[in-house]
Amino acid sequence: MVDAYLEGLLAPEDGALAAAREAAEAAGVLPIHVTPLQGKFLQVLARGVGARRVLEVGTLAGYSAIWLARALPDGGRVVTIEVDPVAAQVARANIKRAGLQGRVEVRLGRAMEVLPTLEGGEPFDFVFIDADKEGYAEYLEWAIQLGRPGTVVVADNVVRGGAVADAASRDPRVLGVRAFLDKVATDPRVTAVALQTVGAKGHDGFAVAVVR
User: Fold this and answer.
1) d(CA 3, CA 106)
2) Which residues pair with 196 in a beta bridge?
3) CA 23 to CA 66: how far, in whole Å?
4) Which DSSP string do the residues of 40-103 spell out, in sequence order?
5) How many independent structural domains does the chain possess?
6) CA–CA gap between residue 102 and residue 45 (Å, rounded)
7) Domain ranges, residue 75
8) Cα–Cα distance between 38 and 43 in angstroms, integer?
9) Burial of residue 101, with CB atoms counted within 10 A of its CB: 0-12 exposed, 13-18 middle, 19 or more buried
10) Can you give the CATH number for the domain in which 21 is found?
11) Contact, 207 vs 181, CB < 8 A?
């Protein structure tokens, strides 16, 4: 109820975003994309830091990539990585429908194979990590290497219904998130915070780090 009220007021979907969700469902892509409010949250953060280049690890059907691409100025670019060829195909179609094909590049492949190919290019100003939790700590390392001082890194699903606080958990997703949080807590190259969220996607949260 609160999400619906806030979405209607602050993050209403347009036709392209609604169509992206519907296309994902029709193709059988897992419905685990960000909510409209979370998409707007990412957009506001990216715009607030004046991002021109955005890296996304985990495209799904391109829903969050559309929100992020709309935050960028002329000449801005989103590079988004997706391992599932079906999801990548749906994402490309959704991005084209939104008129953003010139601003978003979908790279197909495993993130740990694609990320090294981005070395040597212009640094990224904003990084969104929303993929397999087991790889989060490694994705953070690449975000730092591919970023610059001031780059903002946002990681989704870091609370996991409170399971992240269970030191006895053997769930590989929880262990992956805990490794990521241990890294942002101790790595002198970043400063970070994590916040719990509650809403349409249940009890979860984001971590936000800034490269020093």
Assistant:
1) 29
2) 205
3) 14
4) HHHHHHHHHTT-SEEEEE--TTSHHHHHHHTTSPTT-EEEEEES-HHHHHHHHHHHHHTT-TTT
5) 1
6) 22
7) 2-211
8) 9
9) middle
10) 3.40.50.150
11) yes
Angle made by CA atoms 125, 105, 137, in degrees to the nearest 5: 50
Do residues 89 and 112 lie in contact, with contact meaning Cβ atoms separated by under 8 Å? no
Length of the chain: 212
- For the chain, helix, strand, coil in percent to 5 are 45, 20, 35
pLDDT averaged over consecutive 10-residue blocks of the chain (212 residues)? 95 97 93 94 98 98 98 98 97 98 98 97 97 98 98 98 96 98 98 95 96 98
Q: Specify the amino acid at residue 27.
A: A
pLDDT of amino acid 30: 85
β-bridge partners, 153: 127, 209
Closest CA to 129 of 121, 117, 118, 141: 141
Q: What pTM, to 2 d.p., does this model score?
A: 0.97
pLDDT of residue 95: 98
